[in-house]
Every structure is written in C-alpha cells, then in structure tokens.
Amino acid sequence: MPKDATINARVDRRLKVRAERVLAQVGVSTSEAVTMLLHQIVLRNGMPFEVRVPNAETRAALDELAAGGGERFDKPTHEVFERISRPRQKRRA
C-alpha cells in the first residue's frame, strides 16, 4: 500500500523515548508500530487490547498507590505468586 497520509500526535517526551527504546530492541520504528496498531484496529474492528474505565475497587487501589500505600513485593514474581496463591494453613487449637 502506498504511504500517502500523515499522523501527527503530541505525546509526553519521556513516554516517547521509553517506547522508542523498547521498539528499537525488537527492530521496529515508531512509525511501523503505529502502522501495526492501525492494522490491528482494522482487523479486530476495535482496539487490539482491552480499554475500559476502572471500577471503584481499582480506582481506590490506584489512589492508594499514588499516595505511597499498598503492598510491595520485592521477590521474583514466581516466589510472590507461590506465596499468595498457597492455601492458608489452619491454626491448631
């Protein structure tokens, strides 16, 4: 297909730089990534990922994190997952 249209988008400079670093690691330019996104939108007849308004519980969690609260996990993901998914042991009376 001929490339005969231009898209201009204003984004945060830091976001652009961070995204370009990731894209460079996979050998894709920003322009190519935007083109890929547009193709996926057409193929799926919508966004290629879920976009929705967070519910009250999620908003509260985001607010808590923004205020410096919330639980921190400093171990590898698999260790954290094992700890939180393990059945709780019953206390002995």
TrEMBL record:
User: Which GO biological process annotations does it have?
Assistant: DNA-templated transcription; regulation of DNA-templated transcription; single-species biofilm formation
- What keyword terms does UniProt attach to this protein? Toxin-antitoxin system
Instruction: Reply yes or no: does the keyword Ribonucleoprotein apply.
Output: no
Positions of transmembrane segments: none
Q: Which GO terms describe its molecular function?
A: cis-regulatory region sequence-specific DNA binding; toxic substance binding
Q: Which NCBIfam families does the record associate with it?
A: RelB_DinJ
Looking up PANTHER family in the UniProt record yields:
ANTITOXIN DINJ-RELATED
Give the record's family classification: Belongs to the RelB/DinJ antitoxin family.
Q: What is this protein called?
A: RelB antitoxin
